[in-house]
Amino acid sequence: MNADIRNAGEMKPRVLTVLGATGTIGVNTLDVVARHPGRFEVFALTGATQVERMLEQCRTHHPRYAVMAEPAAAALLRERVAAEKLPVDVLEGSAALTAVATTPEVDTVMAAIVGAAGLPATLAAAQAGKRILLANKETLVVSGQLFMDAIAASGSVLLPIDSEHNAIFQSLPRDFNGDFQQAGVKALWLTASGGPFRTLSAEAIAAATPAQAVAHPNWVMGKKISVDSASLMNKGLEVIEARWLFNARPDQIKVVVHPQSIVHSMVEYADGSVLAQMGTPDMRTPIAYALGFPERIEAGVSALELMGRELTFEAPDSARFPCLQLAFDALAAGGSAAAVLNAANEVAVARFLEGAIPFNAIAASIAHSLDTLAGGAAGTLEELLNADQRARSVAEAYLSDKHP
Ligand code: NDP
Ligand code: MG
∠ CA 313-319-320 to the nearest 5 degrees? Predict the structure, then answer.
């Protein structure tokens, strides 16, 4: 039997660390895991601030370690765990995140921390040869070359969780090695829902509130990625993610707005075929695909109901949504530009969610940061983290100057 194929009861369970277990992707991951008793063993769960949710996850999934990135949250969790006499060790801080992602006992890591904060542990897991289920797209945006080199060097299996990339992965030949010519692939088509502001005027978008921005029409997601979806920066980050995951040239990556979020993305072939993956918009489908790979396992997702449904497609509007083009610009600039783009975006989204800046200041501050910090090197993790830090300072200064 292929060593990849594991039958519950017959073979050893996969030993799993979930980075970002308390988030939306983490909760969905544990939902799928719970549907397959004996197939997975939860080694470690990590969070940052949500103590109650982590406590509940420890009761249900019995991890050996629970890591809270925030020391105060770890202290609180330790008290609660001791009071209930749960057999779990509580660790804290970023070194512990890396430790539970790289320890020899673990074979599979779900990387679902939000933002560049997830980079060190995810990269370390790749270097350690873990099977990586990658939700944390910012890792690839910031450190694409470095991360893919680490995967190649260690022989890790990398499975995309982002629904678009998971759809493309499913629609490519199983033995695809990054050679578009050889596989007869012409283009990758990323679908975008268009987000909650798809039909709004530029004036209405400029005046949008955080509550409007996080109310996504089709998907339930964390706040940061919800704002990214509203600005189309999420699609921009996904273009960069696709460039690295599939070795695509930027001109081979196309974006189409598909408001129903049924077609999750497509691959266009030389013979005119376009292969798509469809499904109900529910992240448990790509999560189950990656957890079970190469087997298909139950995900708890409701069946796709196509009768009477209309599927529509339209071009993205770069005038109302400038962030998408900024991502293509960062790809063209190369070096650390994508790290700058990502960091400036994280700062601006946080300020927007605090109510400190208007929605259209997000794109303005990213453009300013890219102009100010062009041409940085991206060869090492230190250089990338440096670019990230400098971009955060530049974006903070720009935003407090424009919106005091
Ligand atoms: P959430 O905000 O719901 O969850 C984020 C997780 O990261 C939480 O566990 C949070 O802990 C933890 N976290 C936050 N900050 C830090 C930090 N500084 N150090 C360590 N851990 C931290 O996000 P999502 O689950 O929505 O998204 C996670 C990732 O997956 C993102 O990169 C997103 O782009 C990607 N993704 C998400 C999709 C979705 O449908 N949600 C779809 C495709 C990709 P706590 O909550 O305890 O503070
Ligand atoms: Mg996506």
Answer: 75
Pairing of strands 65-68, 89-92: parallel
8-state DSSP, 371? H
Three-class SS of residue 309?
coil
Contact 185, 268 (CB under 8 A): yes
CATH numbers and ranges of domains, the chain: 5-161 (3.40.50.720), 163-282+306-316 (no CATH), 334-404 (1.10.1740.10)
Which residues keep their CB under 5 angstroms from ion ligand 2?
162-164
Over the stretch 272-315, which tens digit does the pLDDT of each residue have? 999 999 999 999 999 999 999 999 999 999 999 999 999 999 99
- How many residues are there in the chain? 404
Ligand 2 centroid to Cα of residue 90, in Å, is: 32
Q: How far is the CA of 88 from the centre of ligand 2 (A)?
A: 33
Task: Judge if the beta carbon of residue 184 lies within 6 A of ligand 1.
Answer: no
pLDDT class of 10 with cuts at 50, 70, 90: low
Atom of ligand 1 lying closest to residue 21 CA = 9
Q: Is 167 in the pocket of ligand 1 (CB under 6 A)?
A: no
Taking the CA atoms of residue 59, residue 73, residue 32 and residue 24 in that order, the dihedral angle to the nearest 10 degrees is: 150
Task: Let me know the angle formed at the C-alpha of 135 by 154 and 391, rounded to the nearest 5 degrees.
Answer: 90
Cα–Cα–Cα angle for 207, 190, 22, rounded to 5 degrees: 70
- Cβ contact 302:341 at 8 Å: no
Q: Which residues, in sequence order, are CB contacts of 248 under 8 Å at separation 6+?
A: 180, 188, 242
pTM of the model: 0.96
Q: How far is the CA of 203 from the centre of ligand 1 (A)?
A: 30
Tokens of 392: 């955060």
Residue 20 CA to ligand 1 centre (angstroms): 6
